[in-house]
Design a protein that fits this description.
The complex is a heterodimer of chains A (217) and B (426).
Chain A (H helix, E strand, L loop, with lengths): L1 H8 L11 H13 L4 E2 L5 H9 L1 H12 L2 E5 L6 E5 L13 E3 L2 H16 L8 H10 L2 H10 L10 H21 L2 E4 L2 E4 L5 H11 L1 H8 L1
Antiparallel strand pairs in A: 1-3, 2-3, 5-6
Chain B lengths: L5 H16 L9 H14 L10 H14 L1 E4 L4 E4 L1 H15 L4 H17 L3 H39 L7 H26 L2 H15 L3 H42 L2 H17 L1 E3 L3 E3 L8 E4 L28 H34 L2 E2 L1 H10 L5 H16 L3 E12 L2 E13 L2
Antiparallel strand pairs in B: 1-2, 3-4, 6-8, 7-8
Classes of the chains: A mainly alpha (217), B mainly alpha (426).
Chain lengths: 217, 426
């Protein structure tokens, strides 16, 4: 209820009064609509702070004029902002204008999540190393990785298959970069807080995974 | 010999420690002590246990060590450590146990600056580099290396916790996080302790202008590189911490719900197992798991602009073409002379071909005849030659062969042509 009260006091165009709006808003607007996630990191900082300062007004703006929700995830230093397109079919954005992430990138995303956060390669920052780990460290997954990501019927690791795999991993990272999930510079890559969004989107499925496995059998 | 093999090196370290602790009287020890040390060190390097002491092997190790590390007194049959062994072990010890001491760095840096300020001549600067700076360099480096090593160790420790499943995990990770914090603080302290180096750098730069000796200038150049080098490493340490720590903290977030990561792993396996490949191109995720809707495709901004060059340029003034009877006559005459020439060319060709029907002819006499009939002009003669060659396309039996024989004519010394043989195939 408190939120509603606040929203009613801050108009959807109030952020335009902010002196930084002239410099920052255009970029924020098309980047958000492009699926970008802004966080308190590197050169995203000024944009992040602008959104943080004008959160209520911007939320009202996107809700009122575009029917999408300006959402946030992460806590404290790891907070990030993005436009929620999933599950919001209201508003004036028709089906032709939607864009979905390729399934192979979803898989690569969860592989990266596993490597960094579950297997705790916190210091991993080389794309080449990441590719090597995916190819060699997960024997129990290799077969399906080659089948799906390298799109090969014979799933024994080969140089050719490895090359295809490397390409998919790199393409996925580039896609994630567009979303602000990772930073890439040549061989260097670093995962941003908003990478956690993967889990958030799929959390219902993840929590229900046991049942899904049962149903699939 | 300067660098002992692992087993011998470890044995020397053990002996060094025993000497330091005063285990041996007057720092003297016997061969059996060395044997024991060698015997002990083999376990550290995972060598298979042997049943008998390999006397000959030990003998050869000890002989080698006598070059730089051990001194043997044959009268008393006892050994002592040579000076090199002492400094070798001390350096190893310092590196391993390096105490973090930014205050020391600060004092040394201040001292270095003060001493450098006193240097008036280039010789003195050179001495300053040799005596004081080179002594300081390894101290600073070992401090920085120490921080880097600690990060490496922390990263290893974090990875090692993947094997742990009990509750002590959180405690260990919290300790590591605190350790990383300490490294960060120490990095800051080290940086500020090192700030005097910036002044030193500026001082050296000033001095560099007046230095005439190339060797000294090079030395100064090398010293000046040290500052950015260390700064770079310190920044690198910060960057590494910036990457590792947030992830560690995010990891804490998932620790509160321990089953979540297990489920994520299961979900990943489920995706990998259950996805199907359609038409060998598209992956279909299992059981209706939807794809992530990431963005609206934004139409590109259509830029509508009037390009200056898009429309016709300003018209050029038209030059009126006036037809006068004189011009008309000239044009007709020109056209007529062309026609006349071609008629004549054809006449020549006919004559040449006529001549060639009986026996092969050479072209050069004709060529110079035509040149002579056109008062030395070669236009007609050249046209005849071209037309002749062109004629071979129409008449299949006609053969025109160019040779490499260059023909000159005494009347036209500037003119020559490759001889052509003209014939008809029978």
């Amino acid at each position: 209820m408190g939120n509603e009260h606040k929203l009613s006091t801050v108009g959807p165009l109030a952020f335009l009064e902010n002196p930084d709006a002239v410099e920052l808003f255009a970029k924020i607007d098309y980047q958000l609509k492009d699926g970008f996630h802004f966080q308190d990191r590197g050169n995203q900082r000024p944009y992040f702070f602008f959104i943080e300062q004008n959160e209520q007004s911007l939320t009202a703006y996107y809700d009122k004029f575009f029917g999408v929700i300006l959402s946030h995830g992460g806590e404290g230093m790891d907070r990030y902002y993005y436009l929620e397109f999933n599950g919001t079919d209201r508003g004036g954005i028709d089906g032709d204008h939607r864009c979905f992430m390729k399934a192979e990138y979803v898989i690569v995303g969860f592989l990266i999540y596993k490597i960094i956060y579950i297997d705790r390669y916190f210091d991993l920052n080389s794309i080449k190393k990441l590719q090597a780990i995916i190819k060699t460290d997960y024997e129990e997954l290799t077969k399906d990785i080659y089948r799906l990501l390298a799109k090969l019927r014979k799933t024994n690791p080969t140089t050719f298959g490895g090359g295809k795999l490397d390409d998919v991993i790199e393409d996925a990272l580039r896609e994630f970069k567009k979303l602000g999930w990772v930073l890439i510079e040549e061989d260097f890559f670093d995962v941003m807080p908003s990478f956690q969004r993967m889990n958030k989107v799929y959390s219902d499925y993840i929590n229900n995974v046991e049942q899904m496995i049962k149903d699939a059998i | 010999m300067l660098f002992p093999p692992p087993q011998a090196g470890l044995a020397i370290l053990e002996l060094y420690h025993k000497v330091k602790r005063g285990v041996f009287q007057h720092g003297r020890f016997r061969e059996v002590d060395i044997h024991n040390a060698l015997e002990n060190s083999k376990f550290l390097i995972n060598e298979d246990e042997y049943y008998r002491l390999p006397q000959t092997k030990f003998h050869s190790i000890i002989s080698d060590l006598q070059v730089y590390f051990l001194r043997f007194d044959s009268d008393d049959q006892c050994y002592t450590l040579k000076d090199y062994a002492d400094s070798f072990c001390k350096h190893a010890e310092d590196t391993l146990l390096a105490n973090f001491n930014p205050t020391k760095i600060e004092i040394i840096c201040n001292d270095l600056r003060a001493k450098l300020e006193l240097c008036a001549e280039e010789k003195e600067v050179s001495q300053w580099i040799d005596t004081f700076f080179y002594a300081f360099k390894p101290i600073m480096k070992s401090q920085v290396d120490r921080l880097e090593r600690q990060i490496d160790q922390s990263v290893q420790d974090i990875r090692a916790t993947t094997q742990l499943e009990n509750t002590s995990l959180i405690e260990i990770l919290v300790t590591i996080d605190e350790k990383l914090n300490t490294i960060r603080t120490q990095n800051v302290e080290l940086r500020s302790a090192f700030r005097e180096m910036k002044t030193i750098n500026t001082l050296l730069e000033e001095k560099l202008h007046s230095v005439m000796d190339v060797a000294i200038a090079n030395e100064i150049g090398e010293v000046r590189l040290f500052f950015p080098e260390i700064k770079y490493t310190l920044n690198l340490i910060d960057k590494r911490l910036d990457r590792i720590q947030p992830k560690l903290r995010q990891f804490f977030g998932t620790l509160n719900k321990p089953s979540f990561n297990v489920k994520v792993e299961k979900f990943l396996k489920f995706l990998l197992n259950g996805s199907t490949l359609r038409q060998n191109r598209y992956i279909e995720l299992p059981a209706g798991v939807p794809l992530l809707r990431m963005r609206e495709t934004i139409p590109n901004f259509t830029i509508f602009e009037r390009k200056p060059e898009l429309f016709p340029p300003a018209p050029k003034p038209r030059v009126p073409h006036l037809e006068t009877p004189a011009e008309k006559q000239k044009a007709i005459a020109r056209a007529k002379s062309h026609l006349d020439m071609y008629r004549e060319v054809n006449l020549y060709i006919d004559r040449i071909l006529q001549a060639a029907t009986d026996a092969p002819v050479t072209f050069s006499p004709w060529f110079f005849e035509i040149v002579s009939s056109s008062d030395g002009g070669i236009e007609m003669a050249a046209n005849v030659a071209y037309s002749l060659i062109r004629r071979t396309r129409q008449e299949e039996t006609l053969r025109v062969e160019a040779t490499k024989l260059q023909i000159f004519h005494p009347d036209y010394p500037n003119l020559s042509l490759w001889e052509m043989n003209i014939s008809f195939q029978q």
